[in-house]
Design a protein that fits this description.
The protein is an alpha/beta fold and 338 residues long. Helices cover 46% and strands 15% of the residues.
């Protein structure tokens, strides 16, 4: 259990969190134009201790966002281009046999690219399920097991995975168990018309703008500890639980369309994501307690990938976002139910 902070300490810590978050926003936007919701979502996940799935068409800055974030946080960065022939050892590392000048042989562990702070898993859905599953232990336990030995990953450790929502040939959709490990799924859309001028100026001129390092890995770990210390009132916790239950067919809080069109709803990890993201949202707002609004603010990115629609729902052209927003409109009923 995290010890509660006294009032003065809490105020100082909240102010520090607000300043750090705002400085990181500005640093990332030195290079990234627009995409405010995506940048905020990624930063929220980093401070909440979660991973992010970025979905969008090629060429809209997903890879650049990860690189820029690593520079702003002064973290080690790793990148894996997922392909159908990629093997788990290519990600995790492998044991190699070495021979010294005296012909003595020894086995040494050769770390893979996952041994870093910020891992970009580019086009993750192009790898086979066997390789995708290599990330599960790392994402959940912050460790990898190779050759019967378990090795802790550097801290902080964050996976930012990308996938193309349109091109499906030669891809392997992520299984539900893998999707559930991501705190958020963020949709990266096209830039707005007025943003193109700044994009072209920064990418087709001389040297690109330098990204200022405004925080370190130790800062991230300290902020994560603060996030965990934020109290969650019973009402906010109850709302998070009922929002998650409302995504589950046949639950007392499910809507008619959820019962009809959803095959699988969110797991308890959805409630954990809502609470953790709500804590970050509260700190950003200068408050040391989570409100219902803080929980609701994270509902769509935290739940959209945890709802599996059935064939009828897909045939109707529905998306998980449609159903989550419908659930959010029933907030008064969720809060007043006994």
């Amino acid at each position: 259990m995290t010890e509660p902070l006294d009032s003065n300490t809490a105020k100082a810590q909240v102010a520090r969190f607000q300043e750090t978050f705002a400085r990181l926003q500005r640093a990332v936007h030195e290079l990234i134009v627009g995409q405010d919701e995506v940048v905020d979502g990624v930063l929220t996940a980093v401070f909440a201790g979660g991973h992010v799935l970025l979905e969008g068409v090629p060429g809209i800055g997903k890879t650049m966002l990860v690189k820029t974030l690593g520079e702003a946080l002064h973290l080690q960065k790793g990148r894996v281009q997922f392909t159908p022939d990629l093997m788990p050892a290519d990600v995790l590392g492998t044991m190699v046999l070495e021979e010294s000048q005296g012909h003595a042989r020894s086995v040494r562990f050769q770390p893979g690219p996952i041994h870093t702070n910020l891992l970009l898993a580019d086009e993750i859905n192009r790898a086979t399920p066997k390789t995708q599953s290599a990330l599960l232990e790392a994402m959940q336990e912050q460790q990898v097991t190779v050759g019967g030995q378990t090795r802790a990953l550097p801290q902080p450790f964050v996976v930012l995975a990308t996938q193309n929502p349109v091109e499906q040939e030669g891809t392997y959709p992520l299984p539900e168990a893998q999707l559930d490990r991501f705190l958020f799924k963020l949709l990266v859309g096209y830039p707005k018309e007025h943003e193109y001028a700044a994009i072209l100026q920064r990418t087709t001129g001389g040297a690109p703008p330098a990204v200022t390092a405004v925080a370190s890995g130790d800062d991230v770990l300290a902020m994560r500890k603060l996030v965990r210390a934020v109290p969650v009132p019973e009402a906010a916790q109850r709302l998070a639980v009922r929002l998650v239950m409302a995504t589950q067919p046949k639950s007392p809080y499910a809507t008619e369309r959820v019962d009809r069109f959803v095959q699988l709803g969110s797991s308890p990890r959805g409630a954990q994501a809502l609470v953790l993201a709500g804590k970050v949202q509260a700190l950003r707002g200068g408050r040391f307690a989570v409100s219902g609004d803080d929980v609701l603010a994270a509902a769509v990115p935290a739940l959209r990938h945890r709802m599996l629609l059935n064939f009828e729902g897909l045939g109707e052209g529905l998306t998980a976002d449609d159903l989550v927003r419908e659930i959010l409109e029933r907030r008064p009923a969720l809060e007043s139910a006994r």
